[in-house]
Amino acid sequence: MTLNWALARKRQNLEKRARILQQVRAFFIGRGLLEVETPQRIPANAPEPYIDAVAADAWVLHTSPELAMKRLLAAGFPDLFQLCRVWRDSERGARHLPEFTLLEWYRNGTDYTALMADCEALLDHLVPAARLSWQGTVIDLSSPWPRLSVAEVFRRYATCTIEEALVAGRFDEVLALEVEPQLGPGPLFLTEYPAPHAALARLKPGESRVAERCELYLGGLELANGFTELTDPVEQRVRFTRDEALRRAAGKPPRPLPEPYLAELVNLPPCSGMALGIDRLVMLLTNTAEIAEVVAFTPEQL
Questions:
Q1: What is the pLDDT of residue 3?
Q2: Residue 271: strand, helix, or coil
Q3: Which of 38, 39, 226, 280 has the most Cβ atoms closer than 10 angstroms to its Cβ?
Q4: At what angle do helices 2-30 and 112-126 cross, to 10 degrees?
Q5: DSSP string of 235-246?
Q6: Confidence (pTM)
Q7: Residues 223, 172: contact at Cβ < 8 Å?
Q8: Quick count: other Cβ atoms within 10 Å of Cβ 81?
Q9: Is the pLDDT at 90 greater than 90, yes or no?
Q10: Per-residue pLDDT tens for 221-233?
Q11: Angstrom distance (rounded) from CA 217 to CA 231
Q12: Across all residues in the chain, what is the average pLDDT?
């Protein structure tokens, strides 16, 4: 009986997942974005010290479709979105899978504030009642959602300053263990990440210590990450070189830099891009605490 109930619950989740994917596509198509598919096996990802790619012969499986999608923008394509599988080695937990579904979208002529408005509109499209029941709590999704800088949440909740955390190499640790548990269930955007954690984001004009980067938290889950895109190929090469050096210093296998992307970056127009985890979105919309219950199979079941 317990097994039958569990199978029935998973079937309900997968049926709702299918409808959610249809609604997500309808949302972006209705806003005039072009859906694209880009290769999943590539020579090089953007080097990130704390994200490991899965090897595929001499190449790797992409950890994000970001570089390919921005190359399309640089070639003159219109606003884009993509729903695809991505891979990140050794990620497994109640909220993590090594293979998962990612939604990414890119919009020309916008900054990261437009992405935050997109997230609000997408959830309004998916949850018209603006109320979400999540693990015993009813979450109000009425927009606009609160926006707090990383500096402000560190002042409120952390036992050290951002500067102290950066010097000690503990920024991610303090953010995850001290700050995130205090953010509450409601939707919240963290903004203005410190420059060393800018990734591929543009630094804020007139305030170069922070980047125009935001992350969306909902139900205590980190749901989406976006930023105003860096379009300076010289600065991007400096960052990639630094991050690849950090990877190698940590004993990770060397990977080449994404040279075609760097060569075409000079043509990238002002734009912004967001990545949103579909599996976690389905968890929220089905009130499911374990990511394993919103996918057909986990690695262990294969």
A1: 65
A2: strand
A3: 226
A4: 130
A5: HHHHHHHHHHHH
A6: 0.95
A7: no
A8: 23
A9: no
A10: 999 999 999 999 9
A11: 27
A12: 95
